[in-house]
Design a protein that fits this description.
- With 462 residues, the protein is of the alpha/beta class.
- The chain is 44% helix and 18% strand.
- The radius of gyration is 23 Å and the shape is globular.
Length: 462
């Protein structure tokens, strides 16, 4: 059996300090790594002089991490990954920063990863590279002589051709993807935008069976939506801790309906627009104070990037404005929490909520939507209000799909959800639940690795 080699920016393998893998992706990959005696490579998250890889094995899973110098973190991670590629791939050209130093740091760190990882890759290993931080890595591994089956999965959207061409040396970045054998996208939409770029900018051709040819190189590009660890999350929703959280939330809202949003603090999540939509609901429904209470959980991220500092300031101001204008002495319309919560606590919050408000402006998938569906009481499920611009909308199409830029549309959807009879809520929820349970993170991992394992070994250049 071939080993599985996973490479990503950060490593989420279990350790003695954190024995349980965090998040569905980590659960799926650690299970596969354990089965295949594989290794998960990535950055340690620490800064310092680059040294040898630090190998650790815990519970049958081996991880290998390396520190990065502070300059590399600034240029590769804070710079090109999060100030250039992230906003551009999320359609935010106005926030995208184009700095030659960023690009240099990005390529330098990817080359470092190729140099330190390639000696540890055996000829029959399957190599699976993850996300926008590592796009050039496959090409750099080929330069090291690797003929292994190489796969790449993009967890975020692929931008339209007209946006991507704003990136200096955009063609060079895309050409690097043709060093892989299989390239995966979250949805058919992102795959189609990739097709469009390849045809328009590279003169490529799209063939049958997901094959794409540019020049003399043919790869497979597939849509493969990631899921959650559904079995675990469904069980978590009725755990003792989740039940305590559920009861605590129900007591705190005093007979009102709970609306919940859970998002990393990021401009792509549409949090400011969500607050505006909720505010419009409060302004246009004088009886709202008797009916609803909203909880928004938004743990901070990337605090060293100015645009993230700005979005936090904007949300602090918006939450203060909403509560200042609408709160009563016995009711606060919006509870805004700037810290993460344990998954079992979140499961209890989701189960207590009658509305899940998931309204990103653009999202590769959005697993919060799937977690909300998984956590619901089958006899009395809540209603998912979902942005049509989230990748999850392709699978969870029985949600109330909205344009997150429209406060009136969001307010109307909240009203519709509050008025929806139980029978309709069940009818909408049931097929979404079956999708979340059937196409879970294990299904996603197996689908991708099965396709990768079926390709022939890479032929060396003549």
């Amino acid at each position: 059996m071939s080993r599985l080699i996973v490479i990503s920016n950060r490593v989420s393998a279990p350790t003695a300090e954190q024995p349980t893998a965090q998040g569905g992706l980590a659960v799926a990959l650690t299970a596969a790594l354990r089965e295949a005696d594989g290794i998960w490579f990535g950055w340690s998250g620490a800064t310092g002089e680059t040294g040898e890889l630090a190998f650790k094995t815990y519970d049958g899973v081996t991880s290998a991490t390396i520190d990065l110098p502070e300059q590399d973190v600034e240029e590769y991670y804070d710079g090109y990954a999060n100030r250039t590629l992230w906003p551009l791939f999320h359609y935010r050209l106005g926030l995208t920063e184009f700095e030659r130093d960023f690009q240099g740091g990005y390529e330098r760190v990817n080359r470092l990863f190729a140099d330190v990882i390639s000696p540890h890759v055996e000829p029959d290993d399957l190599v699976w590279v993850h996300d926008y931080h590592m796009i050039p890595l496959g090409w750099l591994l080929r330069q090291q002589g690797l003929r292994n089956r190489l796969g790449f999965f993009l967890h975020i959207p692929w931008p339209p051709t007209r946006l991507l061409t704003a990136l200096p040396e955009h063609r060079r970045l895309v050409e690097a993807l043709f060093a892989y054998d299989v390239v995966g996208f979250q949805t058919a939409e992102w795959l189609e935008t990739f097709h469009d770029y390849v045809v328009r900018e590279m003169g490529g051709s799209i063939g049958p069976d997901d094959l794409i040819t540019v020049g003399g190189r043919t790869i497979r590009a597939i849509a493969c939506p990631i899921g959650i660890d559904a079995k675990e999350f469904i069980a978590s929703a009725t755990s003792a801790e989740a039940t305590r959280t559920h009861d605590r939330m129900v007591d705190s809202i005093d007979g009102r309906r709970l609306i919940v949003g859970v998002d990393r603090l990021d401009y792509s999540k549409g949090l400011e627009e969500r607050f505006n939509g909720y505010e419009r609901f409060l302004e246009t429904r004088p009886d709202a104070r008797a009916r609803v209470s909203m909880l928004q959980v938004a743990p901070p991220s990337r605090a060293s990037v100015q645009s993230y500092v700005d979005i936090r300031a904007a949300l602090d101001a918006a939450s203060g404005r909403i509560n200042g204008a609408h709160a009563e002495i016995d009711w606060v319309p919006l509870r805004y929490v700037n810290r993460g919560l344990p998954r079992s606590v979140l499961a209890g919050v989701y189960r207590a909520a009658k509305i899940g408000l998931v309204t990103p402006l653009r999202d590769g998938m959005n697993l919060v939507a799937k977690e909300f569906v998984a956590a619901q009481d089958p006899e009395d499920p809540g209603v998912l209000i979902l942005s049509r611009f989230a990748g999850a909308a392709a699978q969870l199409d029985r949600a109330l799909l909205i344009n997150p830029y429209s406060p009136d549309e969001m307010a109307d959807a909240i009203e519709q959800a509050l008025a929806m009879p139980r029978e309709e809520r069940i009818t909408r929820w049931q097929p979404m639940f079956e999708n979340v349970r059937g196409e879970d993170v294990i299904w996603w991992r197996k689908r991708f690795t099965d396709v990768l394992a079926a390709v022939a070994l890479h032929e060396p250049a003549a």
